């Protein structure tokens, strides 16, 4: 007997996680080298539940339309069917990030994640997430760290200059005192000269 309430709750949780974390997911049939998209967002204008398409052809069309032919050449080799299979043989998950522009020309950082759907290795699960905000936060943290490092380097340089200047300022009178002490030692038998040397040291 299946607990319908529990099963329904699990479905709602998965639906919520899928719609908040991912823009879409797709299944790639390894033997057919084909892909089928499934939209997980609510009220999406695009229909991703289209029929199965050739993976490499769909990849080429998408990146050419989104980036132009020349820029697409950068991404296609990294995401070709053969490359994905090679990467998944090395590790269970292959992740690739790229930038798209929205309708107003603002950059959006996207992340594709490929993984085996199950242990049979017959189907690959592909998800796409928008990581723009996380990426912006990372860049801001990096900028703040660079600024803190720059300020620390400036403070360190100022400290080094200060110590160098103080060291010079201290060395000069110490040198004079040392020389006058030598004179005083040389004048031990001449009381007038000794008193003059000691007065100069003071």
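Q: What amino acid sequence fits the structure above?
A:
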């Amino acid at each position: 007997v299946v607990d319908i309430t529990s099963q329904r709750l699990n479905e709602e949780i998965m639906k919520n996680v899928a719609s908040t974390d991912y823009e879409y997911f797709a299944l790639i049939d390894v033997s057919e080298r084909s892909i089928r998209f499934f939209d997980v967002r609510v009220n999406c204008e695009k229909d991703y539940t289209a029929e199965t398409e050739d993976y490499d052809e769909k990849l080429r069309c998408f990146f050419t339309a989104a980036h132009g032919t020349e820029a697409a050449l950068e991404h296609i080799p990294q995401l070709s069917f053969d490359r994905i299979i090679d990467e998944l043989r090395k590790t269970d998950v292959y992740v690739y990030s790229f930038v798209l522009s929205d309708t107003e020309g603002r950059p959006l950082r996207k992340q594709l994640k490929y993984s085996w759907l199950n242990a049979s290795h017959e189907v690959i699960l592909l998800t796409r997430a928008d990581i723009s905000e996380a990426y912006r936060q990372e860049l801001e943290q990096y900028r703040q760290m660079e600024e803190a490092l720059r300020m620390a380097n400036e403070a360190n340089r100022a400290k080094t200059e200060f110590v160098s200047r103080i060291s010079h300022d201290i060395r000069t009178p110490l040198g004079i005192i040392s020389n006058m002490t030598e004179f005083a030692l040389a004048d031990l038998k001449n009381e007038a000269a000794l008193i003059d040397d000691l007065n100069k040291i003071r």
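Q: And what stands out in the fold?
A: The chain has a mean pLDDT of 82.
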